[in-house]
Amino acid sequence: MRHKLIEIIDFNTVNTLLEGFNQSTGFVTAILDLEGNVLSQSGWRQICSEFHRIHPETSKKCTISDTLLSEKMGEGEKYHSYECLNGLIDVAVPIIIKGEHVANLFSGQFFFEKPDIHFFKTQAQMYNFDEKAYLDALLKVPVLSKEKVDKAMDFLLNMTQMISEISFQNLELIELNEAREKNELALRKHIEERKRAEAWLQTLTQHRQLALDAAKLGWWHYNPVTGISKWDDRYKLIFGVEQSTLPNEEILNTIVHPEDRPALLSRVEAALDPSGSRSFFAEYRIVRPDGELRWIETHGIARFKDGDQNLQAENLTGTVADITERKKTEFALKESEERFRKLHNASFGGIAIHDKGIILECNKGLSDISGYAYDELIGMDGLLLIAQETRNQVFEHIKAGYEKPYEVKGVRKNGEIYPLRLEARNIPYRGKHVRVVEFRDQTASKKMEKEKELLEAQLRQAQKIEAVGRLAGGVAHDFNNMLSVIIGHAEMALDELSPNQSVYTDLKEIQKAAERSADLTRQLLAFARKQNISPVVIDLNKTLSGMTRMLKRLIGEDIDLVWLPGKNIWPVKIDPSQMDQILANLCVNARDAIEDIGKVTIETSNAQFDQAYCRDHIGFMPGEYVLIAVSDNGCGIAREHQDTLFEPFFTTKAAGKGTGLGLATVYGIVKQNKAFINVYSEPGYGTTFKLYFPRHKATAGCPIKEPVTRHAQPGHETILLVEDEPAILKMTVAMLQKLGYQVLPAQTPGEAIRIAQTYEGDIQLLVTDVIMPEMNGRDLARQIITFHPGLKRLFMSGYTANVIAHHGVLEDGVNFIPKPFSREALGTKIREVLDQK
């Protein structure tokens, strides 16, 4: 209904009736529109007026409930009852005006039976109501029988009928007044238009008379009976002949251009035909006696007299004008316009000529940009091609004659808003001063600018990562060497002590601190994509399923961990330990984002991206991927932090609560495995990290491998140990000897070669550092193997050793252990290498 209810319903009378009904029956009443808005109310319960309608959440529930009353009112029901979302009973009857359901007469805020006190206590706690005051207000809500409600609603039904009838009369009266005002307005407009037309006609008549007086036109007279033509002196000047009287046939044959004679003669004959229009008009060329070609325009009218049988033509009289110059101008203009149109349509943008916004001419480019056909654009107000929010700016530039380029928002015929560049010039056109404007659709260039900014940001991010990577690689070797010494000696010292000795606890803390430092170094290397990894083909569902118990312990009992594995997940190739790092870091961040209780969800699925999708989503590459999504319902990430989320040492946590390397580590691992990561977060609603790992195209005979856990076993073999750092050499010798091995220590490659040459027994294993002063570990192994062909090799380093690795990934068959390592890790790895066939 186009009229507002406040205009139709007599609320003064209605409010008086509702107040009386409330006072006599105690029933709450109100009038609500179909969106649940309260238009009038009487006698509302304290629990609603002081609690439910005050708090924003419970007030929203009231509006939802009131709207449902409108939606659920069924046919045949005299009223509809419904338990509102805040726990009270509401009832309503419809208000119908002119057959349209426009509002509801509402009553309610009571119970059919005693209320559930526990429900309302819970509600008081949930919305921070004063529990005592809230329950006191609850006790004031009456419990009513169905019979009493039926009687009250019978009265309200009668009231809605009365409201509908009165409102119908009010609506009829409003519409009658509107129709009368419309008719009066139309009459006034008609009178004004008639006065303007009369004034215009008078002015036009005056101008026409002045024009006729000022024109120097020749006249002519033709007698169809004698065939003789006569004309005045000006006619002679135009045609270049002196005779004042000349046969018409001679004029046609000697003066009129041969190509125009048939058409001219046909027009003369048509004017002399009594059944024709009797008027005469022609444009034709003449060739004067001096040879000059001229264009002539002639107007005339035939006069007839009554004959014995029918009308006979008496004469044909008119005015004649030399229009040669006008024709030259027309031809030049036509040629110019043709050139302009060709140039116009060759433009890569849209071009329009407009007079104060009204389009006089445009090219096909404007049609392509705007979506309007050429015929639609001509005569159109060009401001309609500009979005509303920038239309005033364009209007002001038109008024000011602004001629510099500027950007606004355009709007296409389909309503699409797009970036638009305008540049206009003020020009003369067909006798007017108008503007020619070029339209340039900036959608593609804006997209390119955005992509450029994103790529520049990615470049800056990559440069930051590379800088930290170089730093991490530079310090890792020495740092890991020292950590190896600390961890090794702490471990061996602990073996010599019993747990009840006081120094045992101190050594244990030293060991833990060193291991945490080693973890920090590994995070730096993973972030910098310089961590040595040994990828295998795995089933992510099996791998992640095995991690859930550990992750549950990691995030705590207050947070629900939900595992949703996808079906038929493709295999991926990755180092399983890296997957441990990814999930641990993301789950810890999710746990920290949840203030109290909450939920963390881990799910997998297959994903495919084509070229079209990747063109619109920077950072995505076409192909098949396996998606891992980790979501939480925590506090979310502020917009201003999302661009710097993966930078090293960036953290929003309090001091001492995080290193700022967790997400940087995840980012490094993702990039190292040629995957990509996206973050979706809304402050207050939670965060989702989506990681896409390339599908591994498995070949025949390449089974999926699952990581195998092994423990250190003692041995008896002879090991040649090469380490240029004395402290590490001494510590590693002690470790190996405790495991039962015979150790041949060497501090330099040269010393190791001499030992290999002179040692009379068998050497089963070479354990060597990678980076050493004299030569690297690989070259050393190549020399020693010439003396001991069956020698097995194990390389160790705190570096990313490009000598034995390509882009951080170890070559197949190369055994490697990163520093620092524990005796357990070293013993397990040595046993694994020695037991290889």
Summarize the structure.
The chain contains 25 helices and 30 strands.
In whole angstroms, the N-to-C terminal distance is 88 Å
Q: What is the β-strand count? A: 30
**Whole-angstrom Rg:** 48 Å
Spatial shape? flat
Mean of pLDDT = 79
Number of helices: 25
The helix/strand class is alpha+beta
Going across the major beta sheet, what is the strand order? Answer: 8-7-6-11-10-9
Q: What percent of residues adopt helix (DSSP H or I)? A: 40-55%
Q: Which ranges are low-confidence, i.e. pLDDT below 50, for 5 or more consecutive residues? A: 208-215, 704-709, 800-804
The largest sheet, given as strand count, sense and whether it forms a barrel, is:
6 strands, antiparallel
Please explain how this structure is put together.
It is a single chain. By secondary structure, the chain is an alpha+beta fold. The protein contains 25 helices and 30 strands. Helices cover 45% and strands 24% of the residues. It has a six-stranded antiparallel beta sheet with strand order 8-7-6-11-10-9, with helices on both faces. A hairpin with a 2-residue loop joins strand 28 and strand 29. Helix 17 packs parallel to helix 18 and helix 18 runs antiparallel to helix 21.
